[in-house]
């Protein structure tokens, strides 16, 4: 079963990521690279990507003639999608374990970041298999 692990970051203080020391950034990504390597070796890794800063996000809808209609970032949003991982695992519990490891990657000063990670099954396959 494939799961997407959605990394949500709070809007309040999101710019603090830009203020991290180089040492803290390197430590954070070293842990994430280790997790990615281990998942690759176990065959559970599918993909991971970080996303651009929230001020670059656009909400798109189809206009009456099919052309894209875009709106900017909404100030009432409390969180933004910062990135995602896709894993292919046997059980939801395994996806939760991986999400917890990612959430616990170090932040400033080496303390666990504890970023909330939303875990959702990716619904692939034939329609009758999804029930």
Question: What are the main properties of this structure?
Answer:
131 residues, alpha+beta, single chain, four-stranded antiparallel beta sheet, two-stranded antiparallel ribbon
What does the model show?
This protein is α+β, with helices and mostly antiparallel strands and 131 residues long. It is built from two helices and six strands. It has helices at 22-42, 92-103, and strands at residues 2-10, 45-50, 59-62, 68-71, 79-88, 117-121. The chain has a four-stranded antiparallel β-sheet, covered by helices on one side. A two-stranded antiparallel sheet has the order 3-4. The chain is flat and about 50 Å long. The model has no long low-confidence stretch (mean pLDDT 88).
What is the structure about, briefly put?
The protein is an alpha+beta fold. It is built from 2 helices and 6 strands.
